[in-house]
Each structure stands twice: as C-alpha cells, then as structure tokens.
Amino acid sequence: MTPLVNVIIMLGMLVVVPAGLALIKTPRHVRVVWIAGALPGAASLWIGRGVVAAGLATLYAGATGVLASHAAVRAWHAAVDGWRRRSLALREVAVLTAMASPAVAGVSLVWERAGHTLLGFKPSLLALTVAHFHFAGFAAALVAGLVCRAAGERRAAAAAALAVPLGTALVLAGYFVDDWAELAGAVVLTAGMWLVGWLTWTEVRRDVTDRLTRGLLAVSAAVLVATMVLALSWAFGEAAGVPHPSVEWMAATHGVCNAFGFALCGVAAWRRLRPRPL
Hints:
Layout: H1 3-21, H2 28-44, H3 51-81, H4 86-114, H5 123-150, H6 155-176, H7 179-204, H8 211-240, H9 247-273
Helix pairs in contact: 1-2, 1-5, 1-9, 2-3, 3-4, 4-5, 4-6, 5-6, 5-7, 5-9, 6-7, 7-8, 8-9
C-alpha cells in the first residue's frame, strides 16, 4: 500500500468508524472490541507484507466480524418486529449496510497484508477495497440513514437511503462480473450520494444555527459533486477502455476528498448535532 492509502484507511479505522458507531445503537462492548482490533489493524499497514502483518490484520478482521454479527442480530429483530413504514425500512437497510461493510474491508486487509490474491484480486486492488468499504460502505450508508431520518417521509430521502446501499452492493458485485456491471453500480451509488449531498445542503443545514456544524455539513455535501464525477469517469474509462484518471490520481483526489471532506466532516457534524442513535 502507498502511504497515502494507508493514511486514508487509518482515518476510517481509528476515527470515522468509531465516531460513527456512537451514532448507531451499538453495545459498549462492540465499540471496545472495535478499538481493540483497529489498533493492530492500523499497525499492520506500516510493516511489510507477511505473517506478522496478516496476523495483526486478522485481529482487525475479527473486530469487523463482531460488528457484522451485531448487524445480523439487529436484522433478525427487525425482521421479527416487521417493517412499520417504508422510510424506516429503508433507513434500517442503510444502517445494516454501514455495520456490515467493514467486514468486507477486514477480510480484504488480511489477504492484502499476507500478499496473496483473494478470489482472483491482486493485493493492490484489495488495498483499494479496504478503503472503499470504510467510506463508500460504512460512512456513506450511515450518513444516508441519518439524512433519511432527518428529511422525514420525503421520497428523495427514501431514495437516498436505498441507492447508497444498493450502489455499494452493485459495485462489489461488479468486481465479479465485469467493468460494465461495476459502472452500473457506480451510477447508482453516485445518484444516492448526490441525493445525500442535496438533502444535507437543503434540509439538514436549514435548521442548524451553529456555524461550525453548518460549515462541516456544507463541506460534506459539496465535495460529493466533484468526487462522484471522478468515480464515474474512472468506472466508465475502465469499462469503455478510454483514457481515465489513474489509480494514484483517484486516491489523491477522490479518495482524500471523500475521506476527509465527506466522511470526516460529515460524521463530525452529525456528532455535534447529537441526534438520537439510529
């Protein structure tokens, strides 16, 4: 992994996910286990690939598994209780996606740190998968769920809560199908992210009086305009075989802006708003 990708992943492990878990109804032991696994997971990024790095990454993968297990329990209880309203059901899908996504990152990290391919994917691609499922997976789905609740019964809010998890899943499925399928997932995810940004700007910020919080929400919403255009250009270039930004350029632009501008600013703003946990 490059140092820049390492920093992005560490931000997800040690800051964005722990802060985001405070916005979700999660038991204290789940949050403690997360930190206990994230610390060695972050350390694994800075040593050479091999047994030691893979072992440290495995501790992190275990923490993501605990969170995913809690998501499974939550999904079971939701299924037993039944979906009472469409907006509630879609919001719950977004929350469950946020809780389950880091597990994909955890498994990918173990194999990447071991220096092995996984399902035919080289370590270099696995590294990007680790980053992707912290931000497009966890952070984006979490913020979509929060925005969906804040915007009430609006159709755009429900669409955003559905499109972000669906787009994330389609992008993952596209890895196993072809580049055109991945492009389709990128289109759906982009539509969902743009809806999240628009609702954040027009609905969530409207009732916020604190300047810092309003500023954080504004940055989180605004950067999505550019970062998702980059995502579409890369996905289309891969599918059509036309010139497109390099992976290094995408990490330095799309990756950095989404990690720091969207995810970090967005989660920080929602923590300042102190909403009732989802």
